[in-house]
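We emphasize that the prediction below concerns an isolated chain of 266 residues; any contacts that depend on oligomerization or on bound cofactors are therefore not represented. The input was used exactly as deposited, without trimming of termini.
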Amino acid sequence: MTLSSNYKMELRKYQTPILSNALIVSCSHKANYAFYKYPFDIDTLFISDLRSTYFTYLAGTLARKISDIVALQGYNRICFVGCSKGGYGSILLSSLVGEIASAIRCSFLSFAPQTRIFPQNNNLSFPSYRKLIELANRDRKIYDCLILYGDLSKYLAKKEAHGRIIWSENNRKDNNEIQRILSYAGPGVIKMAMPFSFHATALPFYIDYSDESTLSRALEKLMPNKRDEDVSENLDNISKIKKEIESCKYLPTLKDLIYLNFQERH
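Result of the prediction step, given as a token string:
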């Protein structure tokens, strides 16, 4: 398997971006691109991991490919963004690209990430994770990549690690994943625990949750047995989810959080 057969990517450039020389890398948790319709107004590289390896397969080669794009386009700062397994990828790739291109300011914005996928993590019961472990047992290259890149602790412990991890503290699985790395995470890693019980933690940051019809439509799209099985977990009680989100007096937008990452010194 080559890099191109495992990943697809698309670079979207804006004529007048709100930040120059900056790049967002959207690491998708699904086969299609994540946040593809979101108005970032900053140049964005969309990446999808077609085999759902949590961006571990040939991760070093992928990081070099991203670094080549950054050098060619003249970017000097990158924010990697992702949810769930895309959140895993955002942390991993931020670290790997930072090692290759040390002059580039790399950060991550990671929503509800898993933090260890190898050795096998019994806290994770997501369909995509079970499929990955089954695949790794048949494919030696995937297995070897999991050995190399399957635990985020060493990347989050680096003094250069910079970014935000946002998760639902009332979701047992998600909270377990974050508790595992709290003692490892360096001073540049900001932890934001939200009073939610659902895995799709990013949702209220990229939609207008004050509009009840918008929120209802977004939740219905993520309901179990539709679209992504991983993200839809714990979304079967719409009224409960609405109350949890509405209990927050203020939430920054996805764009606000990315802008903060870009503006912070590290």
